[in-house]
Amino acid sequence: MADCLFCSMVSGDVSADIVLDTDEVLAFTDINPAAPTHVLVIPKRHVSSAAELGQADAGLLAAMFEAAAAVGSGLEGGWRLVTNVGPDAGQSVFHLHFHVLGGRSLGWPPG
Ligand code: AMP
Ligand code: ZN
To answer: Which of 3, 15, 40 to mutate for ligand 1's pocket (most ligand atoms within 8 Å of CB)?
Structure first.
């Protein structure tokens, strides 16, 4: 999709620190990390947010969870999976992404 930052990362027009690259999914380091490990997992196909997902996306979602688990597998203390939807949640990039956070004790509930 034109003018989408994460689509530009998928196409290679914008550089990313890629940690995992599969047919359906890309994972890369967050530019403004909120934890020692902060990786974003995105679908290569443009989806605006989790609010758009349905039964037809089951395979894509499985691939995203598999990628998140692969990233988290190195984090012995555990890890958190977050996806923000809309302004109240703080979504700032409108291409679906999972935040994988770990490497420190994470507070709950989030702010
Ligand atoms: P959200 O606020 O949930 O939409 O998350 C968007 C995330 O994208 C934020 O954590 C940003 O730090 C991250 N981000 C924005 N631009 C880039 C970039 N060029 N490379 C990597 N991460 C980015
Ligand atoms: Zn996009």
So the answer is: 40
